[in-house]
């Protein structure tokens, strides 16, 4: 009985978000939307970017409120928050007998985070926004954080 109430509460809390994603991202697994797979990928990536922005913002606010430095909040909470889903995905495919997929997911997600998460904004800055400029890294702890990844 308690489990049913928790599931109902979870459904009530997540329904608006699920409905919003349903309305904005075409389901390319259905034959009608198959040819829109790139639009599905782009919209999914945009939603992930938006969720990531709010997640970082909230962790920064919580860290500032509790007096915890941004570096510590980033290394612990944000890194754990992004690594747990990758770990679960790797476990699922490993149990299905796809060990190579599990390893490539683990390595590929970190490579993607570094190359796309840092490379795309820096590339846009130096190519499109301020052509020929250089990117100044203001965070003194970025190198140590980068080495820890």
Automatic annotation (TrEMBL):
It comes from Smutsornis africanus (Double-banded courser). GO terms for biological process: intracellular calcium ion homeostasis; sensory perception of smell. Gene3D superfamilies: NCX, central ion-binding region. Keywords: Antiport, Calcium, Calcium transport, Ion transport, Membrane, Potassium, Potassium transport, Signal, Sodium, Sodium transport, Symport, Transmembrane, Transmembrane helix, Transport. GO terms for cellular component: plasma membrane. Pfam families: Na_Ca_ex. The gene is Slc24a4. Residues 38-139 form the Sodium/calcium exchanger membrane region domain. The chain crosses the membrane at residues 12-29, 36-59, 71-94. This is NCKX4 protein.
């Amino acid at each position: 009985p308690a489990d049913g109430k928790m599931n109902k509460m979870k459904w009530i809390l997540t329904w608006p978000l699920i409905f919003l994603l349903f309305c904005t991202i075409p389901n390319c697994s259905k034959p009608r939307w198959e040819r829109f797979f790139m639009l599905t990928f782009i919209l999914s990536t945009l939603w992930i970017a938006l969720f990531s922005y709010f997640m970082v913002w909230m962790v920064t606010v919580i860290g500032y409120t509790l007096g915890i430095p941004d570096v510590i909040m980033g290394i612990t909470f944000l890194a754990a928050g992004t690594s747990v889903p990758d770990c679960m995905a790797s476990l699922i495919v490993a149990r299905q007998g796809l060990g190579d997929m599990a390893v490539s997911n683990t390595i590929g997600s970190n490579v993607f985070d570094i190359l796309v998460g840092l490379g795309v904004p820096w590339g846009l800055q130096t190519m499109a926004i301020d052509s020929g400029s250089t990117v100044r890294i203001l965070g003194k702890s970025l190198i140590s954080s980068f080495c820890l990844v």
